[in-house]
Amino acid sequence: MQELWRLTTVPHVDRETVTAMQANNASSWLEIDLAGIRRNVRRIRELIGPSCQIIAMVKANAYGHGAAPTSHTAIAAGASRLSVATLEEALELKAAGVEAPIMIMGPGGAELADEAVANGFEVVISNREVADALSRQSQRHGRAAGVHVKVDTGMGRLGAAVEDAAELVERVEEMPGLRLVGICSHLATSEQDDQSFAREQLAAFERFCVQLAARGLADGALRHIANSGAILTLPEAHLDAVRPGALMYGLSPGGIAVDDDVVPALTWKARICHVRRAAKDSSVGYGRRHVFERDTRVAALPFGYADGYLTTLSGRADVLVHGQRAPIVGAISMDTTMIDVGHIPEARPGDEVVVIGSQGDEQITAEELADRAGAIVHEVLARLGQRLKRYYLNEHAEEQEPCAAAAAARTS
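^ thats the sequence. predicted structure below, dont judge the formating
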């Protein structure tokens, strides 16, 4: 069983080593600047103050950045806990030597209780069935199970109804083997300009916590409801802990403006693998979705939707070649994406292309791709596939100039 969660060695290298490896091997890869993640976590600390805990959201392979390296970096920078969506994600972090508390926050049910308790993970629960299963397994394993009770204040997904949640909290505190760690909820609109519903949710959550206190319940439990949007726009929602996701990775949550102290940590690069002429009235790709209106040159890039490049970007996005924008042409394939380089005569096979990041004076952000794809920025990064080799920069270096080009060129 344990073999399922064993990780391969994660490369932590300097810029020169990355360049040498790319020259010989890589065709499409990601560079993750760990100094940027450290800087973002420390900026979050400045925003929330010294007494509020940071629960780093590292689900979905840390939004594509790599769960284990990101987790170690976030903890070293000041996060006190980690949150994932699945048991498998938690087991991966434990296998990678992560020692901080790990909270499973996804939609899993009673079936995860055995291994969650055995491995010392905390579990967010919404109903008594999961609480009962955790209690049984805690007694079987002889160790307490940490529990966060989730109350639904308006998201309408997981969480006990407000009128039922107090009974669930009381049950958790009475059941053998359970340890109440936190009370939590989830904001539905914290990334929108109109904050009225988010404030309603926060008020409902605070009233619920007051009711618990009046009944002598949840004494000392962490209260947490704030995601990245609320960290920036609702300081009153910071409470005892916050759960940054997008903000920790240098992303703009829902288009909310972020300052220059928050920097993107991820760059996606590739190399041109083929260049050919394309005659006027010829086409490219499946379905002949693009017919050329002039003689030009097209280049093939070695990535596609199997690597997480959304098909809705077909004909709508650009990449950077020699510091210039080159448009995507034709339908994005599973393994190949085509670009028009007729205006870049120097483009050749082996040239470096930037998919997300900066090159020269130009920049393409994950937020831009999300906008052009009709998606959200979280989806753009969470879909980044395992075929993309990840290189980790600045593992130990301080962040004098992390992602400097991205910070300087930020336009979104």
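The chain has two domains: 34-250, 266-409.
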